User: Fold this.
Amino acid sequence: MNNLHSKKQVETKIASTKKTVSWSLGIIGAIIILSQGIPLLISYVKGEFHQYVQNSIHNPFPDSYKQMIEDEFAYYDPGKTYFENLSKNASNMQYGDVFTYDPITKRSKEIIVNREYNKNMYITIKSVDIKGIRITPNVESSERKVYDRYLKHGLAHFKGTPLPGDGGNSFIYGHSAVLSFFKKHSNLPETIFTKLEEVDIGDTVTIKKEEDLFEYVVRNKKIVDPEDFSILQTQGSKET
Assistant:
């Protein structure tokens, strides 16, 4: 009798142990799934967010703005009208008797617009791995065939705005790629300005112009509408 009772106790204990082990394994399995699933979910959400940003920015543009690089959709080009409007506004800028502060001489100097300068300059932003990218000066930016030729190899300086070192606001531009293209071609000079999104306040931008080296510190970031031409205006007494 005692043996039978002991046998039942053992069987009950074994069944209880199996159930406990089963629950434990189930919980451990759930934890493992969650530990793998949460990072995947975060990664998915981030990917969807970036795609949403891309769609929000670019969907308003018509298909005619799409530009291809080696049969792959790379970026949007607003085209001739946008740059014609910029050129008109640049040509209307008045720099006579407008002065800027020269940090080298620590004196005021008159802003110069040298439309004849033709020597390449080079830009470096170490924080986002932009190194020695060519800037072509005084590009006739109202002609797409002209600026496209230079943007294939780097950046362009907008003709009619001051050059770096000459005071005022230098307008330097380049293409930004869509995310799907940039992921595969992150160091392509033609779309290198995609990295500007990663530039932070306090980062240093260096421009080499012949033997001169100009360093600029990022104090502000601003996204402007295509119709906002205030970017061409001199920002107080600072060179930008």
